Amino acid sequence: MPETSHPARPARLTIVLANWCPHCVPLSEEKTHELARRLGVPVRRLDIDVPAEERTADALVEAHGDWSPDYLIPQVFLEWTNGRVEHILTGFPEGLSRTSRAWDELLRSSWVRDLEAMQST
User: Which helix (H) or strand (E) holds 16?
Assistant: First the structure.
């Protein structure tokens, strides 16, 4: 009998942040948890000011995010059951209102609605 392959599903959200960053805390941390609740996945929090977490955050951002030696935060990633990592948001240096608007647009998007539908089947 042939193996049945299961489609990849969202498995975890990871947020790269710093506690001193107003785009990160509380705004993006709260929005990441909101999205995680909607998708039914856990959140991993990587603080760039914690040395062990910083190494993991740097590797994640360099491989999948908006990388530069002094990269912007927050950065948020959706990790899938098949190991794929998808960068979904970077904070905007133009101001807190711009990062907030990016979150609102993401949370209202058809992409998020499609992910929610996938998770409920």
Answer: strand 10-17
Residues found in the chain: 121
Q: What is the pLDDT of residue 67?
A: 97
β-sheet bridge partners, residue 75: 16, 90
Specify whether the CB–CB gap between 99 and 21 falls below 8 A.
no
Range of the domain at 20: 10-119
Please report, for the domain that includes residue 23, its CATH number: 3.40.30.10
Question: How far apart are the C-alpha atoms of 4 and 43, rounded to whole Å?
Answer: 29
Look up the pTM and report it: 0.93
Beta strands in 18-101 (DSSP E): 43-47, 75-80, 85-90
Q: Is the pLDDT of residue 35 over 50?
A: yes
Tell me the HSE value of 15 on the side-chain side, using a 13 A CA sphere: 24
